[in-house]
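Input (Esterase LipW):
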Amino acid sequence: MKPTTNPFHPDLQRAARLLPNVTVTRPVLAVVRFLGRFQRKPRVPVDVAVEVEDVRVPGPAGAPPVRVRTYRPRSVQGPTPALLWIHGGGYIVGQPEQDDVLCLELARELGILVASVDYRLAPEHPFPAPLEDCYAALRWLFSQAGTLGILPERIAIGGASAGGGLTAALAQLAHDREDVRPVFQLLVYPMLDDRTTTRTDIDGTNHRAWNQGSNVFGWRSYLGREPGGAQVPVHAVPARREDLSGLPPAWLGVGTCDLFHDEDLVYARRLEAAGVPCDVVVVPGAFHGFDIITRGARVARDFRGAFTAALRRALFPAPGAAEQAKAG
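Output:
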């Protein structure tokens, strides 16, 4: 009998074996949201190095204010760069609190202001509500840069999973509206293409945390229609955009056992072809959300280190880097 090869990274094999294969449906969504209520602490995290504050900022026209959770290093003097962070959750679940640890780390390690947006969720609030909430938060960062003590020319956007999809869509929306210009987009295993739901060639055996059934439910909820159709609204599905030129430089990371692996790499190649620099990190044997589920694993720490370094390069460019890039 021939030995079988484990498809997962050695650091992730135990977690992959223990993770249940759950497809998100309306009943499952209700349970997940109920349990998520206990994640929102009555008090902000206590961190001697970082001040955490919840603020309400003006929402889109005719919509309620948007809650933004800010993380500010206490020791930093003078204006700093900033990151608008967008949490994941398949467009249907999630809140800024789930990424407290990550946002605290980024603020502390990079010495930047991190602002995590609490956007409205589908299916109750389908497109464009979540994206418009993110845009409202981004506009607030730019308009209040002086008061917040941040550098408007050094504001990046980033997110994971559906948050990565919203990040990519936000970069496109900001480009088209020509009102605010983020300097960089951080795409952590982003949810970019509803057409993946129609693929019949995908073997989901090695997928964890987010499978094809959940993907269909998430996209259907967000779009308010069956995903994978001939047409979708502009800015609803980042991968559907034909012209990607003029967008901010990007970093994209994904694992080989992630449902989004193929769509992510296609998008990265299209960015490069359009003249948009895009650094790509592919983690062999990593499943969706591995850096959160197995936070202490070496492969997870290395992955976070890679995108933290990318943020540092984008927000703290070396002297003459811009001129060298233009010359190259």
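The domain at 47-315 is CATH 3.40.50.1820 (Rossmann fold).
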